[in-house]
Amino acid sequence: MNASSDIHDDPDLDPDEAALVASAGGAAAISWEAPEGFRSGFACFVGRPNAGKSTLTNAIVGEKIAITSSKPQTTRRIIRGIVNRPDAQLVLVDTPGLHRPRTLLGERLNDLVYETWSSVDVIGVCLPCNQRIGPGDEFLLKEISELPRRPKLVALATKTDLVSRERIGQHLMKIASMEEQLGLHWEAIVPVSALTDDQVDIVVDELVSLLPAGPVLFPDDEVTDEPVETRIAELIREAALEGVSDELPHSIAVIIDEMRPREGRPADKPMMDVFASIVVERDSQKGIIIGHRGERLKEVGRVARLQARDLLGMPVHLAIHVKVMPEWQRDAKYLNRLGF
Ligand SMILES: Nc1nc2c(ncn2[C@@H]2O[C@H](COP(=O)(O)OP(=O)(O)OP(=O)(O)O)[C@@H](O)[C@H]2O)c(=O)[nH]1
Prior knowledge:
By secondary structure, the protein is of the alpha/beta class.
């Protein structure tokens, strides 16, 4: 194992940051009793890689919680977002994609997927309008229909902004015909574009209508119960994946080595020190991440630092090391260390 390239951004407050810190103190938790007829429960989105699951989750929850990327299969952890309404609380669970396991990591991820599917009340099946429904989608639905405890299903025809109305119509007909073909039942079929925010509210209405009666499950000022360290690790991973070659995404993991408030700062001007490692499998991959004269890593740090600052509501000093851990995806010891 070896470490390299360390980036340190200028930690001084700029006026923007000062404003952010000033406005971060005022949020108060509101608590209320669940009224008669209140519904609560869990939902997740499934679909082929790139189907738009994370983007839809973000559009619904209205805060950046899951990572989105133009590369397939980058959503690796379960991340919950919570929608609070006067009549319901909807907890969204984001799952990794299901794929043929080639490594121990692959097997563990698939187990996680089945576990998540079985534990939710509703599954939203994302079927992008710009791609034909194929064997991959059918495989996924067959797996769901064979679960011992089958949740309710809603079909979501995603990315409607990319195609014509005529094409949307054909796509919806095809989705409807899957009921008979695969012996399943859609509670609803909803066309939606998360990108242009078209029908996102209808998706939420449908999901909520399928939840059981129940109390508030999480305090209503919580957007996600994912530890903040995990969310910052995801932000760094997302930034590191931007614009890198196709073989890299599966080989990247991020560990937050340490996160602590900077000592000696005035109480009204806090700052967070974050020490993180990007883990890759080979020296050549380390080179790609770091880039010529460290330029790429510096950019990764800059992007992730600004997002971490928004998340924490205070300036962040971010130091990133790149480490090589050969074959980490196959090694139980490394996987445990990385939290899988
Ligand atoms: N035009 C358009 N693009 C979208 C929409 N939703 C998602 N995308 C894009 O599609 C790509 C994949 O979206 P994601 O939300 O990451 O897809 P995912 O299903 O979570 O992908 P995996 O994590 O790989 O399983 C990204 O480039 C998104 O910007 C949409 O409604 N319209």
